Amino acid sequence: MLERFAGLTTAHVADACVRAGVPVRTVSLTAVVGERLAGRVLPAQHVGSVDAFLEAFESAAAGDVLVVDNGGRRDEACVGDLVALEAAAAGIAGIVIWGLHRDTVDITAIGMPVFSLGALPTGPLRLDPRPADALSKATIGEWTVTREDVVLADEDGAIFVPADRVDELFGLAESIRDTEHRQADEIRAGRSLRAQVRFGEFLTARAADPSLTFRQHLRAVRGAIEE
């Protein structure tokens, strides 16, 4: 999965989701280590202790991505170097944190891809009751993800897609990427994007039919720039 994603971006996949009618589930995250990550979601809700992560690793498959739900909290870090090191030993492909991390220097040395909302020296100073579904789902931003999802992450953030539609979405994303690359090459060669997408024709058609959208026009001319 990571090999195929290497030729794409999360933006390509997001546009593919729009085209396929799949909800676009994205969040803004920053890469602590690594530039991209792909794998099946291994969810874990953090309530103040790392035991949830260690238990998640017990049932992990090689290539899974630990997706940590810490409610987007910015008053504590919930993942540090020991969790990252244990994750690597368990065959985990990377860690996505809806919250903060710490031990940045050590995590960088470990080399495992980690994406988070940022860093903070302070670890958790609380221990809340653990929900019954702590290892079956994680809420990331406004999205709830499970083992039935795949997470893809790069410099733009992370996107979650249904595992059973990954191949379909990758195919669409590759088509969108190839179209956009051709368009970029033509712009560099002197042919404007407006000319490529026949923007003058769109303006004329919209004048005759105000309900016509630019996205509809792009689909008709296979423009691809918005999806």
TrEMBL record:
Catalytic activity annotation: 4-hydroxy-4-methyl-2-oxoglutarate = 2 pyruvate; oxaloacetate + H(+) = pyruvate + CO2
GO molecular function: 4-hydroxy-4-methyl-2-oxoglutarate aldolase activity; metal ion binding; oxaloacetate decarboxylase activity
Keyword presence, Plastid: no
One Pfam family per UniProt: RraA-like
List of residues binding Mg(2+): 103
The enzyme's E.C. designation: 4.1.1.112, 4.1.3.17
Keywords assigned by UniProt, alphabetized: Magnesium, Metal-binding
Cofactor(s) named in the record: a divalent metal cation; Mg(2+)
Coiled-coil residue windows: none
Name of the featured protein: Putative 4-hydroxy-4-methyl-2-oxoglutarate aldolase
Organism: Kribbella rubisoli
